[in-house]
Structures
1.
Amino acid sequence: MSTAMWFDCPSRQGRTEQLPEWVQAVGRSQSPSSLPLLIFAATGDRRLQLETRLRATVGLTATYQTATPLGFIQQEVELFWPWLRLSQAPNQVVFLPSESEQVLASQVWQGWLNDESLLWPGTVAAASVRRCLDLLLLAGLAGVAIPEIPQRLQAVLPASLPPAIVPALQTWVDWCLAQGLLSYGLAALLYSQDLWPLATYRDRLSQRFSGCYGDDVDEYPALLLPVFQRFQAAGWPWGCTFNPLGRCREGQGADPEAWQAWASAIGGESPAQRSGSVGLSCWQPALQASLETADGLDTAPVWFESPFSSLQTVSRGQLLRQVAETIAQAVENGVIQPQEIAIVGPGIDAIARYTLIQILEKRGIAVRPLAEQRRLPSSALVRSLLTLLAFLQPGLGLHLRREAVAEMLTTLSDGAIDAVRAGLMADVLYLPQREQPQLLAVTAAPRWDRFGDEAIRAYESILDWLHQAQTEPSALGQLEAAAQQFLPRDRLSLADTAHLRRLLEVADHHWQLQAVLGTAPEAAIAGRFYSLVMDGTFAADPFPESQWQPPIAAVTLATLYQYRMLQAQHRWQFWLDIGSPLWERDQPAYYGYAAFLRHPPHPFDPVEAAQTRLLRCLADLLARAGDRIILCHSDLAVSGQEQAGPLLALLNQVPQEALAGKAGC
């Protein structure tokens, strides 16, 4: 087998299965002491899945190191930071997540925001800051220097730009370097402009790895292309898989056209593809023809012998209930299992998510929402820990309410103090003060014996812990001690564990960051942390995947982007809200992303780009469906307005009898 491979094939054609076979073949030809192979996966979840396949297929045949594109870039910049840092910069860097990055950038750019020289037309300050930081990331991933950004944008999107965008971005970069702070955008910029041009670094890279492989490079930025080109030019093992129906991250820094152009230029060997279509791919020409026919709404024939059916109602609430009822009946009748069903849509709002989960779980059917992010203050556990912190750190009493104190007593006592008793205790035992609020001894309440022995013991336990915690000077230490004392992991659900872990991660990073930025009073640091969390700056997934527990039999609920990134397949797919115009915007895209592609379109036509994305998305969904696709439509959207999205042309061709028709191709 050749050591230079390029596998270009659509969804479910064996791309990811092919890569471990390449690695195994290379491992058999190398000595045990050979350098490891560098293997990329598009996302963290896919990297873990790829590692599982590699362990099962390759075993000890070859040594390798896996990484994601952004993870590799960040790792390399941190590893070679001594070569890049300024003379007065710290020896170690602190990574900036996007939430902290935006907060600090807003402070650094406050002058430009005040005089509106950094405001984009029609946006507020927060949106302008986010857009500038996104452009920095796009420029770094494309290898574009900061002074070239305005020229790039105006060539593709003729529009007025903030006059201070270049000096603002350069000031932000210089400030971060001086402080030893590193974000994904800054890491990409340093790698492209400073690290990769160093011949010494390129030589070191060749001395650390013996080959390079990438799975689904259609999701990779052009910044990684020189890495593969170096191994290819040296004649070392390399291989890439490419999905023409993927390209989900094209608007977030990925540049699939650049990778395809390179593959065409070098002519890498490609293994034979599987014959025949997969899933319901054979219906892709019919769907495309229906969408491209101008009078498709009036004259298109009905597809009676097809795997398509529809659910149509007037209101969206009716539609959600009908979708849930259809699924419940099919599962209860043994027609299908929950894990074989997926509900996908261009946007799963909180109302739809709550309605579907509530109805299905009442029928005994679990639901698995993908990557659902909820603000940390939505968790009673998080709110209770922050309320507890307000009794320990001066200056936080202004934020407290009696209702929050009552909730804290109930949550931290694990229900030993019920809601009624907690409310009574908060009314008579909570002493509000701006600087240092207090909880009084239980005997300070009239008729305190009526609280009950169990509630009294739980209250006194919390009060004793508060007195002991006063000896701990660090608010971070107090938070960690409170979590260990009142919230043992063995009694927390996965959702509570995820929120607690996220809170402690955010707290740890916040104090690290404050240590870098300068000495501030502990109370001020704690107050800033309290405000950031309670303002909803940070979020967590309340339904995390657990690597220690087997996956449960659950219906998958996801947006189009999440579902396609998951790379799953299901027998039944429910396409929710097919009348929504959001189907043409199935994937998130940064402003001006087309300007940073290696081969940018001239001129850029957003309508044509949206239509191309829609057809690619539908083809990908068809390949991941097994037996049925149910189109779900309500005449009125959740806002009460009529829907007129691009997929309405399909409704007249699909029978309304749910689950009717002939499955398959």
Note: The chain has four domains: 4-76+194-266, 94-179, 281-372+549-653, 377-537.
2.
Amino acid sequence: MRGLWMSAWVIVWAWVDGVAFEAAAQVHAQRPEASGSPGLERRLRPLIAAHKGDVGVMVKHLGTGETFAHRADAPMPTASLIKFPLLIEAYRRVATGALDLKTPVTLHDEDKVPGAGILTYHFSQGTTIPLRDVLRLMIVYSDNTATNLALDAVGLDAVNAEMARLGLKRTKFHSKVYRRDTSIDPEGSREFGLGVTTAAEMITLWERLHLKKLAEGNEALCDAMLDHLLHCDDKSMLVKELPPGTKVAQKTGAVSDVRTAAGILYTPSGPIAVCVLTARNQDQRWTPDNAAERFSARLAREVYDHFQQAADLKEAGRDDSPLAFGATGPRVERLQRLLNRRLEPSPGLVVDGDFGPATQEAVIRFQKERHLGDNGVVTPEVWRALGELPPDPAGDPQAEADPAQLNAEFATLRPEPAEPAANDPTAVPFVTARAWVAIDADTGRVLGGREPERPLDMASTTKIMTAHLVLKELAAHPEARDEVVTFSARAAATPGSSSEVREGERVRVGELLYGLMLPSGNDAAVALAEQFGQRLAARDGSDGLDPLEAFVAAMNREAQALGLSATRFVNPHGLTAPNHQASALDLARLTRVALENPEFAALVATRRRAARLIDGEGKGRTIVWSNTNELLKIEGFAGVKTGTTSSAGACLVALGQQGERRVIVVVLGSAASASRYADARNLFRWAFHQPVAAPIETGDGR
């Protein structure tokens, strides 16, 4: 929210700053431009070249580290963006006890200044509000009067000293807003106006906030700052062209020929820090189509689309992003199989999905043989050199392993102790998820949630219903457990996460359930639907349907029977499809019913499972499936199901136990894979502190 009523002397001041800044810009124009991402380079460089004004940009994906930078070290005017560092120092002082957010602040007429905000225009002399609300107004409405009140409490020198302590020596707050006489750096005020920063230093601040490394490491206070920034009401820059519903924590600024914006985009591909600084803009209009604002909006959308495209490739099973020591999951399994086939002699890696020392040693050996370095990181170049998996199991020592022996070894796996809560576990935590719910697994009582009944894409959490239906059939007909499923061409060709069973290979139903739920096999979902669809249709009097369609119809009948009013299934695996949605509450209630079957509970709690596959010529091979649920490595969690697509974001349905009490937590649309686990763990900590018979908590979780 920016004022359109600036007085003439303000415009003259901005013009003087503009003249002074021109000289500074010429000094920094010779700095070399830098970029760490060819993909972002191709998308963003033409936008920057076409903009009529000076630009400093930095982008960093906070999950992968992929970065783009353009004049990121050049000092630039901030306008109101400098209020973000003021917020940081205020909360640092709260963390040390030097400030109290409840301290009343009294508004006097002499405090009022023009421009953005609501205090000057809507509040009376003598109004008293807590410091926390002063900071809220400063960020949400960019309130200039609130900013000056906050500076009275914190101090200009203190803000700059904290930035210097963090190593950000080019980020400085020069004076109070519309109070040039308070400047502690007159030369800086003349050159840059209210404040100065660089795109690189801004990204550093946002990354530290994301990692909870501000406010003396106090996570609750970092969450409080994020909450202010998530509610910033400026929709003219970073937010403008992003898909509806995208969460953005941000702060913007605008004065005359300066437009600035910085923040974190919470996208399905993960959190992305973006900073766009523009000055000496030719277009200085205060209109919705201002060129600098359109440039910022377009840049944010290009960044979103770039990383979304990478996420879509992952969903389609064509992920060649870097992989390094400590990684786990199906991509590591694929890597291990490829290394066993490509290296002579074979390193004999166990295909267990853990990127440990043996796998790293094999990667380095492969890199040296192909002259690709020796750092042990699987880069896109290494993936390309490894190629695709051959159609036969030759060279894979695990293919001949005894499944019973491997399963006995897997049964000895023990989870690690859970870490104690770092903050007040009774407060509703900040989460990145679009929707969440926590219910008592034994009573079904809702403990709390945010938009728990909103239908959303659910990704592979769909497979909870798929497994529930099959296990329900097995309970009524135990002999079906030993039926043999022969993989069809349709099943084997299903895109996305896979059990890696090949067309024509055979596996028992009881084993294939592990291929469905552990590696989240979309192919296994189709194979099981084909196996059971016809008999379910016959039992319900709906003969004549394709077995896959018949199984999906049975899923919807079961949802209706269970009262899951916000749920509709279009397929048995969860790949994105129109109207394939469920609410967090429906998924929690479905899971509670499914867990009544001990076989389902044991299935989803399994970390690894080996099975024997037989092909059409009678040749056998052993395959190992690893559970995608990272919480199973931590004591107190008993699994259930993950899910990830570009539309759904990162999803998780999880069961946790503390003593005799069990809680089900569902998060839909978390910002990234790691975020869903952080969201869930924080919600579990909170949920276990709620009385079983407590009233429903309606906190928004932000």
Note: The chain has three domains: 8-313, 330-397, 435-687.
3.
Amino acid sequence: MANQAQDPKRLDRVVELIANTMVADVCSIYLRSEDESLLLMATRGLRPEAVGRTRMRENEGLVGLVSATARPLRLTDAFSHPRFSYRPETGEDPFHSFLGVPILRGGRVLGVVVVQNRTERAYDDEEAEALQTVAMVLAELVAAVGDTISASLRQTRPAELHGRVLNEGLATGRIHLYDPVVPPTQLFAADAEVEERRLNEALDALRANIDAMLTRAGPVLFGESRDVLETYRLFAHDPSWEARLIEAVRTGLSAEAAVDRVRREHRARLESARDAMVRERMHDLEDLENRLLRQLSGEDGGRKAPRGSILVASRIGPAELLEYRDSGLAAIVLEEAGAGSHAAIVARAIGVPAVGGMPGLVTRSEDGDLMIVDGEAGVVHIRPEVEIVTNFHARMALAGQKQAELSLLRDKPAVTTDGVEIDLFINAGLSFDLDHLDQVGAKGVGLFRTEFQFMASETMPGLDEQSTFYKSVIERAGDRPVVFRTIDLGGDKIAPFMGRREREENPALGWRALRMALDHPFFFRRQLRALIRASRGKTLRLMFPMVTTVEEFEAARRLLDSEMEWAIKFGRDLPNRLQVGAMVETPSLAFSIDQLKGKADFLSIGTNDLMQFFYAADRDNARLSGRYDILSRPAMRLMLQMRQRADEAGLPITVCGEAGGRPLEALALIALGYRRLSMQSARIAPIKLLVRSVDLSQL
């Protein structure tokens, strides 16, 4: 069959082979055309003149139904089915029985292969399995041919997609797909027994890993999280899932191809699923299948990608993204990420161009294809033409020159033309972020996200591990201040040792950050103790995330004070100075700033969360993430009131959200009286250039 498919003009030989193998009177192949309809490309048994003429729209007829549902369809009498669509040019009148299966590739239905018989034949499970295997192979083989059959089967034409900027910058490189890929050369196995044994061994190892995850997590699985991870383990032990995999191996597929076939089916159903619970279950199953493929391939370490490649994924959590931090990625492109999502924040921390919010990205991408990422306009070019590549390289050269010019500002102060100094700090979370302090000339670290250490660890970091890490951060910063934000997990920031937490309708408004920490004081106090130990003889600056009420701040402060008392009681060295702040990320605390006088030492505004709560717009929802505007009159009024109330209470206040690193927003904040901004390190130089060119007396 492989040899026959290599000649696109002789696709009829393929249907001949399938018909003979399946003992069918008819075999037909429908492929998706550029207008998304399904075009009859080859047939044995129907009228030859129908080839290239008969089209079925999505959801039209039985072929359209198979495509829309991404599931096989077996009928003994096709004419009696309510979705049957009669096409006289095909001459299919005498054929009653029908078996159609989708041709799946990359989560997309690329076509449908159909067999029919004159008699009212009841196709059994084995025949349906065989045709699904044929469809899987057909997708790979025909996709290798090129545009001469169908541009939608093999992605060879240039594609341009528009999304949202997650991190500015320009890059070009080869696509590295996040999900494991099974090469066509590994589709079949010579010995089914050997493959079944390999599959069973991989399943056992996968289940053992999940069991070990539960055991290691121990007391740090919060609330119902352990129950949810137990449910995840049940998926891994699901006999029906295992049976589907074993059945696929017994048809002659390799263990990898068997997993891939089941994954294709789940992914296609996920694409069409509308129910949130169904989508979540499909994601769980796909995640298990990806883990199983990695188990089969022997991947047991962190995720890797070729240096200089561009990571492409439908969606990815911040913890998974952190695993690529040492891979030397050129860029990151995500299908389902908004500019304010935590995956976007991690992408900025890694320091590479990133774009998100691009429906259809993964299905249009092929592993190893050339991609251009325009992190200034939010555009990616897949398989770009030579002229576009040439022009883009020229843009990259100019961007490099501009960056070199900005680097000259490193040792110059951020002072306006009328003499007002603005303190610029960096946001950090990874150890190598501290290298940027000298490179950009920042005053210090205005926000150090301590949760990144937890998200990058398979097990709960111990007291010594945390303390050593915090001490290294303080030492690398030298005499410049570092403000540690206590652990902010929850929402989409789930550490590997926490497992999959219970589903929340809106996790951003759910059990996360300080709420989670206060509910588990042992977990929280361990971090506080580590911070105290790491700051011996130095100033410890820390702040609590997502404080909603003054009472929450007081409760957290009591735990901190008790840890200081413990250190004194047992003769431990203490920080020579302690400064405790609160992050203003909720409207409720924004209107309670006056009550923090005498209780807090400073404030920091997290504009990312504050604006999503202010506008009731989920920043992780691609449809909403671009709608809220901090420059609107209501938002500016809120920002002004917070600054005024902080001044009245004698509390220094810093803006540490993404808004502080955008020129127009930074200018507005400075005009409102803010004198301390913390941002991504790459934004320090442009904002410093802006500050040095502004006369505040004219604003």
Note: Residues 146 and 154 are 6 Å apart (CA to CA).
